[in-house]
Amino acid sequence: MVNAADQIRMMVAGPEAHAACREQFTRESGFLSTPCADLESVGQTVLSVRPDLILLAPGPVSDPAGEKWRQGLPGLVQTLAGLDWRFSPVLFVCVPETDMADMQQNPAEDQIHAWLPWPLSVDILIQVWRPWERVRNLEQARFSEQQKLEKSLAYLDRFKQELSQVKSDLSEEQQSLNSALK
Q1: What are phi and psi of 105, to 5 degrees?
Q2: Backbone torsions φ then ψ of 88, nearest 5 degrees
Q3: Structure confidence by residue, pLDDT tens digits, 19-57
């Protein structure tokens, strides 16, 4: 069993999402996976789950159930890219190797982090995921350090203003004492 802190939060979207989450991408294999088999509800599900990884699996070209997914893929990718993220999830698209060349002509290509073969093995997914995970961790660490720096700079600005006020008060007090001594 994989430690809960090491599990990959992911959403699997596509006609075979429920089976994939139930059979492959389980807690035992290191995933906290949420299936979404309804194209129209992907955006809502993503916002509620906030996954680190989104796996879009539209299905093979020969599958009529996946036709709607394949047609909707460019719009879906654009929708996901347009959502309000502090740290956007990594987006992988999985298609059968026989359909890979056709699917990679997707107009949303620059939003997709990797094209993977479907069906997908857990080992391959983890192997491709790890470098992207490191990138996300670095982004989060940079954001955290930036927040700390901004707080420190705000503290220093307040300290500078207070010091300036104390200096002004001391100057007035000195002038008052000098005039009293004359």
Answers
A1: -80, 20
A2: -70, 145
A3: 887 788 888 888 888 888 888 888 888 888 888 888 888
